[in-house]
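Weekly modeling sync, notes
Attendees: AB, CL, MP (scribe)

Item 1: holo prediction request
CL wants a bound-state model with magnesium ion before deciding which constructs to order. AB pointed out that an apo prediction alone won't tell us much about the pocket. Agreed to run with the ligand included and paste results into these notes for async review.

Input as submitted:
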Amino acid sequence: MKIICIGRNYHAHIKELGNEVPAEPVFFTKPDTALLIRNRPFYYPDFSSDIHYEAELVLKICKVGKNIQPQFAHTYFDKIGIGIDFTARDIQDRAKKSGLPWFRAKGFDQSAPISPFLPKSDFSDLKNISFSLLLNGEVVQKGNTSLMIYPFDEIIAEASKFVTLRTGDLIFTGTPAGVGPVKIGDLLEGYMEEHLMLKCSIK
Ligand code: MG
């Protein structure tokens, strides 16, 4: 399986990092070794001193697709979860300055904690799903799919122009404002609507 991520998909987050609103979706990937499941702890890596959390809704692809039209995109995912796109911001800032790839900043081991997934049918309106992230009990990020620049269907359509989507692939759909650093001893908790879905302690 592969993990496809979209960057810069919420205006307030673009603003907080001083980036430009993209003319087309910004994609990057994480390898499958980035996955961190079952609320296992995240071990702070020694190659970075500025690891940031980015809470994001995650789609699970349920059938093979290529060149998917937006109006059919909703049939290609059946489950939604919440994940954290851990980012080595110091490494990413260096890469951005020199126009180099983000692989080391985004693709490292354990950089993609994910929750269990809920069936898409649990949500009455996919265009109005709220989610949030708590850091040591305080809300630091609040998102809602109504605020996405590129909604689920457009992300799937655009990504599938370039890569074949396969059953089990995951799509991280972008983070709202409020990203920030973690330190050893922190606890992150991810909510979808009112459900606590994900816990991740930093060790
Ligand atoms: Mg992200």
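Recorded for review: The chain has one domain: 3-201.
Action items: CL to compare against the apo run; MP to circulate these notes.
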